[in-house]
Amino acid sequence: MTKFYVIFLLICASTADVSNDCDDPNWHTLETLESARLECGPFFKNRCYCMRTCYEHHHQYVVNCTNSNFLNTEPLAHLPNETQVLIFTGNYLEELPWNVFGTLDSLPDLRVIDMSRNKIREIRGKAYHHVQRVERLILDFNELSLDPAKNHPRVFSNFVSLLELHLTDAFEDDPPNLAAMLHNIFVNSNLTQLIKLHLEQNEISEFHDSNVFCDLPNLLDLYLGDNALTALHFNISCLRNLRFLDLQRNKFKRILERDLHAMDTIVKHNQQIVVDFTGNPLDCSCKLNPFIKWMKKTKVFVRNKNNLKCYKGDTPHELHETKNCTPKLFSSASRSATALLFFLSLVLIGLVCALIYLQRSKLQKKIEPILDSVNKRVRYTSIATGDNREEL
Fold first, then answer.
1. Which residues have CB under 8 Å from 265's CB, separation 6+?
2. Using H for helix, E for strand and C for coil, what is the string for the chain?
3. What are phi and psi of 13, to 5 degrees?
4. Quick one: which of 106, 184, 232, 314 is 20 to 30 A from 32 by CA?
């Protein structure tokens, strides 16, 4: 890690709000990179920087251990008491043990924890203690296991003030039980203050648990971009405060009318909701017409709607209503009705055959007299015909 990179992380960590105390020309720090290393203490082995600097345009005490090659979390139990921002990324942890930050409640000002890119697979149930005031937790680009034995549902239960949870590409590949695990976490962790949730790049194709987000009552922004969703697959009517839904670069070929109605329902409770479908492979067909008509009348703000494309094969086209859809719809309905009638006819024939087989004894008793009577008449007729021929 070069000095220029470290200086960039420490001094230009973010560009959030321009009205801040970092613009004060009278503020300056006497810290050097060498003194910032020493400030951390011996447990950090001169691999980190601890200093008051400008983070997100505010002067904050930042502990930065980026790409510092730690194999465990031992240094974190000895953070300086005044730490406000912890950046502990690019290490090799795999497992977060109990009490990552020690057993003493000595971090009253800690607000941000960034533990992304650490190859974390397992987080013990009591890993995070003394984080009651933390407002942002970043666990992006890890390899969290979906095995319930390796991740406790109450893993975030101590983050009672958490406002932002970042889980971009945070889980192991091909996560079939992600929705169930997330629901257990949200139910048991009591994240009632959470307003922003990032779940991008997690290969999510559907949520088997439709109420996966319903235990986050104050959620404002839900980021589901760069997944494999073809429909919402989850209940958004319970998210009464939702203001932004990111669905960019998923697998939507059309937008189901039930999903359009669900988004309209939220607008009735909110002043505004923004949704983004940019980068989805929308199909240029009659099935896209309801979505196009909906965009013209809905109160939902569709971000970048003028840049949306639909596709015929691999060729992109401007979004447009497909004409002459009614005959195709009727033809489809007629084919469906014919197939249904044929199927019902087969069922009826099968039932009749089964009834005949079950009642064969009774039917035989009733039919035999009739057959005997017919046979007698045939014989009599034959005899009579024969006699007449003899007389001739």
1. 237
2. CCHHHHHHHHHCCCCCCCCCHHHCCCCCCCCCHHHHHHHHCHHHCCCCEEEEEEECCEEEEEEEEECCCCCCCHHHHHCCCCCCEEEEECCCCCEECCCCCCCCCCCCCCCEEECCCCCCCEECCCCCCCCCCCCEEECCCCCECCCCCCECCCCCCCCCCCCEEECCCCECCCCCCHHHHHHHHHHHHCCCCCCEEECCCCCCCCCCCCCCCCCCCCCCEEECCCCCCCCCCCCCCCCCCCCEEECCCCCCCCCCHHHHHHHHHHHCCCCCCEEECCCCCEECCHHHHHHHHHHHHCCCEECCHHHCEEEECCEEEECCCCCCCHHHHHHHHHHHHHHHHHHHHHHHHHHHHHHHHHCHHHHHHHHHHHHHHHHHHHHHHHHHHHHHHHHC
3. -65, -30
4. 106
Query: Which residue type sits at 91?
Result: N
Sheet holding 282-283, edge to edge: 282-283, 309-312, 315-318
Average pLDDT over the chain, rounded to an integer: 84
**Which tokens go with 153?**
């549902």
Structure-model confidence comparison of residues 324 and 284, the more confident one: 284
Q: Which of 20-34, 217-231, 281-295 has the lowest mean pLDDT?
A: 20-34
> Which phi and psi (to 5°) does residue 360 adopt?
-65, -35
C-alpha span between 283 and 274 (Å, rounded):
22
The most confident of 244-248, 319-323, 369-373, by mean pLDDT:
244-248
| Type of residue at 77 | A
